[in-house]
Write a structure and sequence with these properties.
Elements: E1 2-8, H1 13-16, H2 31-47, E2 54-57, H3 61-74, E3 78-80, H4 97-104, H5 124-141, E4 146-151, H6 153-163, E5 183-190, E6 196-205, H7 240-252
Helix pairs in contact: 2-3, 5-6
Length: about 250
């Protein structure tokens, strides 16, 4: 099995001001964002819940800084990857939201799915395609391993659309609200017939943020890596592959 952990960066200066932040407008993490990343680092270092083989990070400063803070807990070098950056805002990079609206106007991706957010930037479908190619490449290169990717809310949103085979051309009607430094856990399972599918284990896991601002230390080593050692059972008794085999057998008789 391949385990993919997607971690959103800590609170960024661009989130607070707010600014459309590509490489030019990204001023990194706020003081709170640093504390959030440090809380995640302490959790991962002491709980050992993620035994990662690979650590990848977006090259945007807010993600880079988050990855640099948590890297010692995973005891891994960081592989920086442009392909897991947030949606490219093109010429709007560095503009405040107010200035962006005045200069370019808001783009409704539901009504204008092929209109870039600004000149030189991406539209929603091209962004999701980039993320899809990146996640496919990363998980194929590291098949059977545990991979941590420090990235962005948009990348995590896109992972749902990609792995659940949703329409990727337009912005979804239901929106996600991915918290800073939260963990999203996907698992790639290969069936008996060789077909693979993605299974979600968790989303918005940010329990470590409860430690931010506390004077006492949270004993993460007292928290078990998994909630239970018992084998889990799917709600549907048969997997899709098993169901097809059972149906074929019944028709044969």
């Amino acid at each position: 099995m391949t385990h993919l952990y997607l971690i959103r960066h800590g609170e960024a200066v661009a989130n607070v001001e707010p600014i459309l932040a590509g490489m030019h407008g990204d001023a990194g993490l706020t003081k709170l964002g640093v504390a959030q990343a440090e809380a995640l680092r302490d959790r991962l270092r002491e709980s050992h819940e993620i035994r990662a083989d690979v650590l990848i990070a977006s090259t945007l400063p807010r993600a880079r800084q988050t990855a640099e803070i948590i890297a010692p807990a995973l005891e891994l070098p960081i592989q920086f990857d442009d392909a897991v950056q947030e949606l490219n805002v093109g010429e709007a990079d560095g503009l405040s939201v107010g200035d962006f609206k005045a200069k370019y106007g808001l783009v409704d991706f539901r009504q204008q799915p092929f209109h870039p957010i600004a000149p030189g930037g991406e539209f929603w479908g091209s962004f999701v395609l980039r993320v899809a190619v990146a996640l496919d490449r990363i998980t194929r290169e590291h098949e059977g391993k545990t991979v941590v990717v420090v990235c962005h809310g948009g990348v995590i949103d896109a992972s749902f659309m990609i792995f659940f085979a949703m329409n990727t051309l337009t912005f979804p009607n239901a929106e996600f609200h991915t918290h800073n430094t939260s963990i999203t856990h996907w698992e790639r399972v290969v069936g008996d017939n060789g077909s693979a599918r993605w299974r979600m284990h968790g989303y918005n896991d940010d329990v470590h943020l409860r430690a931010v601002g506390r004077n006492d230390h949270v004993q993460w080593d007292d928290v078990p890596p998994t909630a239970t050692e018992e084998r889990d059972h799917p709600a549907v008794p048969l997997s899709p592959e098993s169901q097809h085999r059972a149906d074929d057998a019944s028709h044969a008789h």
